[in-house]
């Protein structure tokens, strides 16, 4: 996995073109170790995850490792824990995340994309989640995320058949937000939009969306903390002043 931070955007690139960017154990572990420092970095506004230029996004988990790493229960459990930790690091990243998908996103590739907040894909992209072709039961957190995004009917179709879904179908069922003729340019544009917004608002919204998705709809201490942080943030002061003086807010400058 390659990491680059430019203009507030951290980009993680799955870079194994000779293996169609298949995700091996070391890459799952890298997600878990690379993302916490980025979350804490005040110079990082958002995260983009992609494959190598031109695609694919990822062919999925590196099945070539399975005979060695998933041959008996104990190493299989350790492998599963590493996958869960890597996926959770993406899903719990407190700042906005974008999956920029070129070409296919299969198995673990779809797993990574679905762990992101927003998903943009190229017209030729294809998606599939294929545990039924390997005799594997898909992890419960990943299954829940798939159901939350596309609903139980389409989750059943995707997991039962293991068939590939094209980009227009993915857009229609809500698996991706947009199908873009130039997904690289559109991702840069969207990243620019998110980077220009109040980070305190985006992080608060992400946390509250996660709570509501878990069925938690009460105003608890965590929610109050987000409200308090927003009210006392320099971004709030900048946003109000910009509105009253009829100018564009500069939240990056306000954050310092």
Describe what this molecule looks like in 3D.
With 256 residues, the chain is of the alpha/beta class. The protein is 51% helix and 14% strand. The protein contains 11 helices and 9 strands. The chain has helices at 25-40, 66-69, 73-91, 108-115, 140-161, 167-172, 183-196, 199-213, 221-231, 234-244, 251-255, and strands spanning 2-6, 9-14, 46-51, 97-101, 104-106, 118-121, 126-128, 165-166, 178-179. The strands form 2 sheets. Strands 1-2-3-4-6-9 form a 6-stranded mixed sheet, with helices on both faces. The longest helix is centred in the middle third of the chain and has 22 residues, at 140-161.
> Which residues form runs of ≥5 with pLDDT under 50?
none
Distance between the termini: 29 Å
Can you summarize the main beta sheet? 6 strands, mixed
Radius of gyration, Cα only, in angstroms? 19 Å
**Secondary-structure class:** alpha/beta
Count the DSSP helices. Answer: 11
Number of strands: 9
| H/E element order | EEHEHHEEHEEHEHEHHHHH
Net shape: globular
Helix content, binned percent: 40-55%
Major β-sheet strand ordering: 1-2-3-4-6-9
Strand content: 5-15%
Q: Please tell me the overall pLDDT.
A: 95
């Amino acid at each position: 996995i390659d990491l680059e931070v430019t203009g507030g955007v951290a980009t993680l690139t799955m870079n194994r073109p000779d293996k169609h960017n298949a995700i091996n154990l070391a890459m799952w572990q890298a997600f878990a170790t690379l993302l916490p420092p980025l979350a804490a970095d005040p110079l990082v506004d958002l995260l983009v995850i992609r494959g190598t230029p031109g695609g694919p996004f990822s062919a999925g988990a590196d099945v070539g490792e399975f005979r060695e790493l998933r041959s008996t229960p104990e190493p299989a459990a350790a492998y599963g824990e590493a996958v869960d930790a890597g996926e959770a690091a993406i899903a719990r990243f407190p700042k906005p995340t974008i999956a920029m998908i070129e070409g296919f996103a299969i198995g673990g590739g779809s797993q990574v994309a679905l762990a992101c907040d927003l998903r943009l894909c190229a017209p030729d992209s294809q998606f599939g989640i294929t545990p039924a072709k390997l005799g594997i039961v898909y992890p419960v957190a990943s299954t829940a995320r798939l159901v939350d995004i596309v609903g139980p009917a389409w989750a059943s179709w995707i997991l039962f058949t293991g068939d590939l879904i094209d980009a227009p179908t993915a857009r229609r069922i809500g698996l991706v937000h947009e199908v873009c003729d130039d997904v690289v340019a559109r991702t840069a544009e969207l990243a620019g939009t998110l980077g220009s917004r109040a980070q305190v608002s985006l992080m608060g919204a992400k946390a509250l969306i996660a709570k509501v998705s878990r069925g938690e709809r009460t105003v608890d201490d965590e929610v109050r903390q987000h409200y308090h942080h927003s009210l006392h943030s320099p971004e709030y002061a900048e946003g109000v002043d910009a509105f009253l003086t009829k100018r564009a807010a500069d939240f990056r400058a306000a954050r310092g």
